[in-house]
Request: fold
Amino acid sequence: MRTRFVNGTQVDCTGERPCGIVTEAGLISVDTLSPCDVTVDLNGCVLMPALVDMHCHLRDPGWPQKETLETGLRAAAAGGFGTVCAMANTSPVMDNAAAVVSNVRRAESLELCRLIQAAAAGRELKDAEPTDYAELSSVTPVVSNDGQTIFSDTFMERLLAASERHGFMVSTHCMPEAEIISRDITLSKRVGGRLHVGHISLAESARLIRDAKRQGVNITCEVMPHHLFGWDDAYRVNPPMRTRKDALALIDAIRDGTVDCLATDHAPHTEEDKANGAAGISNFDHALAMLWQVFRENKISLSTLSRLASKNPARLLGQNCGALERGMRADLIVFDPDARWEIRRDAMLSRSHNTPFEGRQVCGRVIKTFIGGKLVYDNGAFV
Ligand SMILES: [Zn+2]
Reply:
């Protein structure tokens, strides 16, 4: 089936122009001239690549009361994500290839957005006994003990060396943040590897990573919407909410290319868990609107947002998507960048509604989500 998108603007990392996209057999078509079976009227909205989330938690297997693959991937698809990478701190922990493959297959059968399942770096997420990196690298591009800091220098050094050898990415969880980032940069200079720093939140972290990049270290990093959208808030997240000064430093780091990716750290919990002090925030439903609100206020373009939320994470995860290039997977969203709305917990699709941003005004709404050229979400309903 050939689908043509008309009457709107197309935006990706290369900029914006009048829309001339045709999709065919799940891909963005090279042939834009032949007749199409379906025409999608954008009604003046924007056609963009779907977002690629480098970092989320789906709690499956383990805690269906918080989230399942199905509820999480529905919220993600409605939020404009085409691919999400789920961290390994499930129960049981994702520390073997069979578990990783099983989750990916289950996600495929749901026909929502795509799942990349990260694997644990250590058994039981501990920095003691390493998992089988050779085996895991054949089923996932990401190895991470996210949720737990790797304190052992020896463990981290071996992990980085293995990532160099097997070609996977090491996504880190750094607490205390600047201290561990600094240690990892030193190790990376020694043994190489593919270091990706998860959820940076401090001005100091951005400074360390900027300096490391200038010195030629193979390092990438990500920022979460809540660290840009909120500050001086006691709401429990890991890393915690920081100051306005930190948020502004992260925005500078987005502007100068220090920050590679925008990810969600979507981390659902029940009301009861939150009341008992669990750290985490549910972000899939409104991550894009929070980000676009911040980008607009700071006069950063939608094209830059697309580079950081789609193109860069897709490239780092080895996915053939994230831009409106011919031959790429047709994971697309129709986005209304001018729609103003209010975050409301009771309107969230994630099973958990944990956010401190109830009532906050945001900008930009996902109207439709296409995965592999197929419409999966349409204006509030799943197809
Ligand atoms: Zn996380």
Residues 177-191 form the longest helix (15 residues). The first strand starts at residue 2 and ends at 6. Residues 55, 57, 87, 146, 265, 267 surround zinc ion (CB under 6 Å).
